[in-house]
Design a protein that fits this description.
Blueprint lengths: L10 H31 L18 H8 L4 H8 L3 H7 L30 H9 L4 E4 L4 E4 L5 H4 L16 E5 L2 E4 H16 L5 E5 L2 E13 L3 E12 L4 E11 L16 E3 L2 E2 H7 L8 E4 L5 E6 L2 E7 L9 H4 L11 H5 L8 E3 L1
Antiparallel strand pairs: 1-2, 3-4, 5-6, 6-7, 7-8, 8-13, 9-10, 11-12, 11-14, 12-13
Length: 354
Amino acid sequence: MDSDIARPASWAASFVAEKWAVLLLSVTLVALIVATILRSRKVSRKPSNHPPLTLFDMPLDVVLRVGDFLSTEDKMVFALSCKSAFVAFGDTRHSPEFKFPVKISPVVFPMERMLPFTSGYWQLLRRLEDSRFQCCSACLKLHPIREFSTNDLQTVAEERTCVLGPGAGVVYLCPCVQLTFRGGMKLEATIRRLARQRDPIIFEFGNESFYWRNWHSCQHTSGSGTLQIDLLAVVCGTNGLMIRSVYSFEPNANITFDPLARPDVPGYCCPHRSVAAHLLDSWGPRYEFKTTCRWCGTLIDTISRKSIVTVKYLRTTDHQPRSQWYYQTDRALENLDAAAQSFQWPERPWGFGS
């Protein structure tokens, strides 16, 4: 039987102290190794005088490739963020998706009230809203918040109107010109200012009456032919702004004058009558060459069976939309009942002969 080896009385205490010393030495060595590794990987960086790189420091073709992954709406919002982005993606604004919404059509009546609010144009305006600008459903524009009442700012965008009220609306002059009430007031003020400066583009024909002969001209080609539109802006004394429009249509050789032959001719004599319908009526047996729209008062004079002249009295001098303005807007079309809407088609007695 083996016997236990005799150990000194201080053996246990010295053994524990030796273990702690070894552990402490190991921790110290590990810390030194880690510090050495970190010190060797540390890169000394000197302060740089160059600004940080941005997206547009990359080649333009790389930036355009990034834009390929954006939707049309996102690309347009990005283009409005800075000048460099606008240079790269500014052409997006010409996309048909952002075309100004028109609620009247020569083919379908009545147009739905929500049509402008489902368009890409309106959706873009909603994306651009912030604490400074809000959408107006009457003008279909962004306005500074100071142009809305407190109650209007708490209203949903599709029902919100500016201080001009729901009677403001938009006057549709041609496929590329839509006039808001503020735009009408600015146009009148511009004509009066140019008249005072005796600008050669302004002509005077009476007491405080002036006109801008070549204010706007455009040409539109469709499957039926070519439509030339010339707009003349007139300021008639205290009566305010008046727009004289000349529509000259040159049909294609293979076009027949059937009521359904030319629904694609753009333009409107007034909100209640399309150019296509009026041209077709000019070939009817009971046609009145001089008429007045029974709803908005637009004067329509048919110079020939291919040329129409219209006169719209907008009255912008009151600085507040009146009935003359409202009945020329697309919003007035909503007030027509089903019977009245039927008169907008060709061969219907929609106007008053003169």
